[in-house]
């Protein structure tokens, strides 16, 4: 089963995206409140896919993608 990490600083948006993914797929969905917490989760167990918000405080979505691509 594929795993997806949904990263968004808005709890409502996280749940909305996660709910849609769970409804339309059989993927396991995990959540992170921001880019920093997402990297911590990815270090523990890398997901198959990351869906991220762009505008977040601290480590934004583009910086998160760059960090993932560089291997942290």
Task: Describe how the helices and strands are arranged.
Blueprint: E1 3-7, H1 11-24, E2 28-32, H2 35-44, E3 49-52, H3 61-70
Parallel strand pairs: 1-2, 1-3
Helix pairs in contact: 2-3
Structure in words:
It is a single chain. 47% of the residues lie in helices and 19% in strands. It is α/β, with parallel strands linked by helices. It has a 3-stranded parallel beta sheet, with helices on both faces. Strand 1, helix 1 and strand 2 form a beta-alpha-beta unit. Helix 2 (35-44) packs parallel to helix 3 (61-70). The longest helix is centred in the N-terminal third of the chain and has 14 residues, at 11-24.
Short description:
With 72 residues, the protein is an alpha/beta fold. Helices cover 47% and strands 19% of the residues.
Unreliable residue runs: none
Estimate the global geometry from the Cα principal axes.
globular
Arithmetic mean pLDDT: 96
Name the assembly state: single chain
Number of strands: 3
Measured as a percent range, the helix fraction is: 40-55%
> DSSP helix count?
3
H/E series, N to C? EHEHEH
> If you compute it from the alpha carbons, what radius of gyration comes out, rounded to the nearest whole angstrom?
11 Å
Within the largest sheet, what's the order of strands? 2-1-3
Distance between the termini: 24 Å
Report the major sheet.
3 strands, parallel
Structural class: alpha/beta
β-strand percent reads 15-25%
